[in-house]
Every structure is written in structure tokens, then in C-alpha cells.
Amino acid sequence: MDRNVKIAPSILSADFAELGKEVQNIDAAGADYIHIDVMDGHFVPNITIGPGVVKALRPHSNKPFDVHLMVAPVDPYISAFAEAGADLISIHIEPDYDHAKALSRIRALGKRSGIVINPDTRPEKVFPYLDEVDLVLCMTVQPGFGGQAFMPEVLDKVGIFHELREKEGHRYLIEVDGGVTPEHLPLCTKAGVDVFVAGTAYYRADTATRKAFAELAGETA
Ligand code: DX5
Ligand code: ZN
């Protein structure tokens, strides 16, 4: 199957005092999705963005908002992020909540749903949900902070999800998140990645490099 690889810059590495402008800039530079990291200081040891900020950013771009929820419990917040303007809402497999209920709630609100899996979580844990999700997000760092090193061993897991999708005819996209630099792109696409999140590497880049990043991502794998 031909895959058109996409880029989802993470605004976690943006200047938070200029977030609206930052979202406009990455939109203009060719982002396919705007990746928004929501952390609760409980499931992960960091606190970032709430639905109010997502709502304030919505008028700054028409690109899909890819909202990565690192929160537990998750249920009380799904509708708030949906109403704020999220297009894709992803929830982690690790916390002990009703994943099936949360995923169906996301879909019932008319949004695309994703399941996220940490580097040290077994892929089998998400198998029961593969038929229901639009995205499988494989963390290539431990969630919580930007600027960590990419964990190449996660690409084995990407390969498993890629193979399962081909074999069983699932529709989900495969996304990687954490420590991604342009150098990782060929390896990622070879393993089966469709969407890659980039925070630090993306924001470190100048405008020309960002364009190159986006063009590279636009190539068919
Ligand atoms: C980590 C976040 C990532 C991260 C990506 O918990 O989910 O989206 O911000 O940033 P870099 O590319 O710096 O790892
Ligand atoms: Zn993320």
C-alpha cells in the first residue's frame, strides 16, 4: 500500500507566549496536523495545555488538531477537548480506565480517535481496540517532556502494527512521537509510520528547514 507520510509538529516546543502566531507559522510551513500535548501532572510529571488554550488556538489554523491526552482519568475531559476544536483525540492505554468507553465517546462526538502506547508497554495491550481506532500512536520516548532521545527499538512495535493493519485490514494510521529528527524519517517510514510528531527538532529548524521537513514528509513511502 502506498502511504503518504505526514508531519505533526508539536507545539510543546513553541514559545508559549506567542502560541497563536506559532500555530500560524507551522501551518504556513506545511504542517499536516498540529500536535497538542495535554499533560496533567498526574499520569505524567508535567502540566501543559487545557481545553481553554485549544479553543483559543482554533481560529489560528484550519489544519486538524491532533490532541494527545496524557491524563488520567480521561473521561471527564473528552467532550471539553472535542468542543474546544480537537479533530483527533488520542488516549493512552496504560492508565486503568474504560478505554472502550472513552474511544466510543470520542467517535460519538464526531472526532477521530487514537490509542497511545508507551515504549515499554506490550503491543498486545492495544490489540482489542485496533478495529475501533483511526490512529495508533507509538511513543518513541517516555511521555512527559520534549527534548528526549528517540528510542529506535520502538520501530519493532511499529512494524507489528503495520503488519497487522495489512493482514487484518484495519484503517488506523501509525504515528510516532518523541525525539524524532529528519534523520529518523527514512527508518520510520520503512517500518510503517504514516505520521510523525516533531517538537524540539522542528522548532530548532529555520523556516527553510521546516519547509524541507514538510516536503520530505509529503513523499510517498
Ligand atoms: C512527549 C510528547 C511529545 C514531545 C515531542 O510526552 O508527547 O509530543 O513533545 O517533542 P520532541 O520532538 O522534542 O520529543
Ligand atoms: Zn505528543
Description:
The chain has 221 residues and is α/β, with parallel strands linked by helices. 34% of the residues lie in helices and 19% in strands. It contains eight helices and eight strands; from the N terminus they run βαβαβαβαββαβαβαα. Strands 1-8-7-6-5-4-3-2 form an eight-stranded parallel β-sheet. α5 (154-168) links the parallel β6 and β7. The termini are close together. The model has no long low-confidence stretch (mean pLDDT 94). The structure holds D-xylitol-5-phosphate and zinc ion. D-xylitol-5-phosphate binds next to β2, β8 and α7. D-xylitol-5-phosphate (DX5) is lined by residues 10, 12-13, 35, 37, 68, 141, 143-144, 146-148, 177-180, 197-201.
Short description:
The chain contains eight helices and eight strands, in the order βαβαβαβαββαβαβαα. The protein has helices spanning 19-28, 51-57, 75-84, 99-108, 154-168, 185-191, 200-204, 207-218, and strands at 6-9, 34-39, 65-70, 88-92, 112-117, 135-139, 173-177, 195-198.
Compute the CA-based radius of gyration.
16 Å
Oligomer: single chain
| Mean pLDDT over the residues | 94
Shape: globular
From the helix content, strand content and strand pairing, which structural class follows?
Answer: alpha/beta
Count of beta strands: 8
Strand content: 15-25%
> Which hetero compounds are present in the coordinates?
D-xylitol-5-phosphate, zinc ion
Terminal CA distance: 9 Å
Widest sheet, order of strands:
1-8-7-6-5-4-3-2
The biggest sheet amounts to: 8 strands, parallel
